[in-house]
Structures are given as C-alpha cells and as structure tokens.
Write a structure and sequence with these properties.
The protein is of the alpha+beta class. It has one domain. The chain is built from one helix and two strands. The relative contact order is 0.41. InterPro entries: Endo/exonu/phosph_ase_sf. This is Endonuclease/exonuclease/phosphatase domain-containing protein.
C-alpha cells in the first residue's frame, strides 16, 4: 500500500514568519502551530 496526501492545513505565510521570528507574537497569540493533513491509503497496483 502507499500513502497519499489528500489535503493540508495552510501554514503561516512567509511574510508573517519573517516579521515576528518568535512565537507567541503580536499577530499569533499561541506558541503552538497546528500541523494537519489528510491522508489516504492507496492499494498497491498488482501487475
């Protein structure tokens, strides 16, 4: 079987990350960043 990515949660944009280099910041009140993705297990194709 193989694992494929179905969807991803959008992360912070690069401009925001460069402006405030530490978390929490004035724009992002948490020091946690959510990493979220949806996956699908695809069956192996037999030849």
């Amino acid at each position: 079987d193989s694992l494929t990515v179905e969807s991803l949660l959008e992360l912070l944009d690069e401009e925001s990350l460069r402006k405030d280099t530490a978390l929490p910041s004035p724009e992002w009140s948490s020091d946690h960043i959510a990493l979220l993705a949806g996956f699908r297990c695809m069956p192996r194709i037999r030849r």
